[in-house]
Amino acid sequence: MKITVNGEPREISTTSLEDALRELGYGEAKVATAVNEAFVAAPARSGMTLEPGDRLEVVTPRQGG
């Protein structure tokens, strides 16, 4: 299924947001996620179903100043 991840087109084989994060290499990383500009909390990811054309944003925390 084709979705957009952080502005880049990507092909994934799952519809679950939780599984998509694993497939995309985020595994158990602490990240913030939004689907179609709507924040998705970590506990809700397993129940979130992605659709073709969805826009996924994944933000990783950074340190520094």
Automatic annotation (TrEMBL):
Residues that span the membrane, as ranges: none
Gene3D superfamilies per the UniProt record, alphabetical: 3.10.20.30
Pfam families reported for this sequence: ThiS (PF02597)
PANTHER family for this protein: SULFUR CARRIER PROTEIN THIS
Official protein name in the record: Sulfur carrier protein
Organism (species): Poseidonocella pacifica
Lineage of the organism: Bacteria, Pseudomonadati, Pseudomonadota, Alphaproteobacteria, Rhodobacterales
